[in-house]
Amino acid sequence: MSPQLGAALAAEEAAIYAYGVLGVHLGGRGDVTEARAAEQAHRGRRDYVVAKLAQLGASAAPSPAGYALPFAVTDRASALKLAIHVEDGVAQAWRPLLPATTGADRTTALAAMTEAAVRATRWRRLAAVSPVTLPFPGRPE
Amino acid sequence: MSITGYGRRRVLGVAAAGLATASLGACGLFDDEPAPPAPPDPLQPLLDEAVALAAAYDRAILFQPGLAARLTPLADDHRTHVAELARLIGATPPSAGPSASAATGAPAETIATLRTAEQAAQKSAVAACQAAPAERAALVGSIAACRATHAEALR
């Protein structure tokens, strides 16, 4: 399960970076509270993956200093779009861990995927995007 | 009279007894023990739940058309799950129409009821994901996650 964990780590790192970029463009207090909570959640998941990889004796690829964003973030609309994009990506990164794990590890992977999907739904609602849900969160589009 | 005559009767008797035994055996095989039905697929309850959820949304929309814009996409998600699960386990998806329904209350009450149903359904999908073999874990996990997003969408 190390390759899948490596991909989950990369997605969590990218999410932490993205929230740092998009935070300044968000609007009301609701947005900002949501973004802070999301970033904390991603830090927690990242720490879990790092510990898990160490436990498996696998080395994690060093995280890059910066990321190429899929599009420019210049205002609230593009910031919300990036938040949705990032959470969908995190859900997609955790999903391949489900077949690669059992027991408590699968429970953790499912929780991480589900929480990302729920945050994506919250961001879609804040961005007034419809529909706010996907039929198969985590499945590559 | 002859040894041959006696012999023929005896042979017939044995043959008759043999036939009787054979027909009794046939009764046992074909009448008393019908072939046991194949055990239901472990994902059948998840499929049934998706059918029931889709019907619950249809019912809610029927009684409160004002909720249609919000609820229709969620009902569609469940129908997508029904189709995918039915294909996976080789079942014919049952159709539960919105007709079999009780009257529903105020919109807020309807939303709360649907939310409770989604939360319960999420729990059973999480359990199904835990129990699933590797090749089914991702699909069932996505269904569990989708139900969680529905509960969020109904807040």
Automatic annotation (TrEMBL), chain A:
Pfam family, one: DUF4439
Domain named DUF4439: residues: 5-141
Family matches, as SUPFAM superfamilies: Ferritin-like
Gene3D superfamilies attached to this UniProt entry: 1.20.1260.10
Coiled coil: none
Record-given protein name: Ferritin-like domain-containing protein
Lineage: Bacteria, Bacillati, Actinomycetota, Actinomycetes, Micromonosporales
Automatic annotation (TrEMBL), chain B:
InterPro entries xrefs: TAT_signal
Keywords from the named record: Signal
Signal peptide positions (record): 1-26
Identification of the protein by name: Uncharacterized protein
Source organism (scientific name): Paractinoplanes lichenicola
